[in-house]
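Re: that chain you flagged

S.,

Sorry for the slow reply, it's been a week of failed gels. I finally had a moment to sit down with the sequence you sent. For the record, here it is as I used it:
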Amino acid sequence: MAIVDMSAREMAAAVRSRELSALEIVDAHLAEIDAHDHEVRAFLLVLGDEARRRASQIDAAIARGEEVGPLAGVPVAVKDNMALRGVETTCASRILAGWRPPYTATVLERIEAAGAVVIGKTNLDEFAMGSSTENSGFFATRNPVDTSRVPGGSSGGSAAAVAARFAPLALGSDTGGSIRQPASLCGVVGAKPTYGLVSRYGLIAFASSLDQIGPFARNVEDAAALLSVIAAHDAKDSTSLGAGFDASEIATGVRGMRIGVVEEMLDGVSPGVSSVLDSAIASLVEAGATVERVSVPAARFGLSAYYLIAPAEASSNLARFDGVRFGLRVEGEDITETYLRTRASGFGAEVKRRIMLGTYALSAGYYDALYGKAQQVRTLIARDFAAAYERFDALISPTSPTVAFRFGERSDPLSMYMSDVCTIPSNLAGHPGISVPFGAAEEGMPAGVQVLAPALGEATMFKVAMALEAAAAKQTVPAWRSAAAS
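Prediction finished late last night. Pasting the structure tokens below so you have them in one place:
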């Protein structure tokens, strides 16, 4: 087996046993990036020299008999909206080009303490605003399964990096589906934890009440292993929960579990994705679960509420990028003109659109009717999910209504926003969700099944995900998966 085809857990075990060195593992992935990332363009920045130095340090520690952590020598690709001290961090925006933060995000401190190696910073939709990674301020990332198609977004670079074997693990952020949707489109596993389970310190904010960092992997157990490392209380984040996650309790099966299929997330789903979901339901029944339809009525309004709440928070969070303290500065005749020129030059069209929408929603005379009403809908969504979880242990749905679409195919904002119609409700509720690849849909492209659970229900969520993954492994291997592994 080639090194890049090993699981993250296999790599770490091989490093700890000295069967492989961390440097060998890092070099194998850097070679893969060098050979193929010109086709995919997953990375904004590859940290080759830094990764090799880090790998050598891990190897030296092992030689001295020191404990190096559960992710020893495992390369991790990191979405470029997480701060890494002294390393350019841009959020894929020209307004932050050249900015090097003086601090490191808590999640990156935690993975390095666990022995992982940050191999590069991945591309994204600018400031995480998008569903295709076409909105990057620098270039678009391509889907490794079919490079004529998008990888999803906003964490498209991280999903593509894992799918292309550039790294076995990656970190992304999920505000309205930005981990799960690209995971589905690229055929990998992607999980959004309960809001507050993972520290947001060092994550450059889009919408602070929605943003959450989570893992990408090629299998469920690797995703759980990464989540177990990054899930912990952090005093630097006022929203951080006093909870962790134990990955050792996820493989007990689904026999006797009650699983609901969310009716409101079935509208507008393509025939191929519907067929994938039907197969997934059948596999859960065969594994001993009871599966029934359930209504979460307010979920129908999730998209509308989200596109008032998230832009409103973005308009506030992005006010700090003004040409004075960070990145780009375009001089004007006075300070006001400097602000205007800097923001006009530095922000892309989608970011400007959301700032304007959010500012409007917060303006005098419209706050109660728009932002206030959206927050009321958010409460209703949380209540409806709570009612569903009184009857069911977990819920499932398609992750995305369609497979990956071609570049330029969704030119109007509304059709793009609809990509996240199945993922947004759980962000509004603050609940965890995971996308698990379950075979191929239209034109042989991968499709994911989304598993949802109540707050801090990650163990249940991962049990269902494990059952789906086991069932998917029994199917005929899709052409995209065998090609990706070759």
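What I noticed first: The chain has one domain: 3-297+383-485.

Talk soon,
D.
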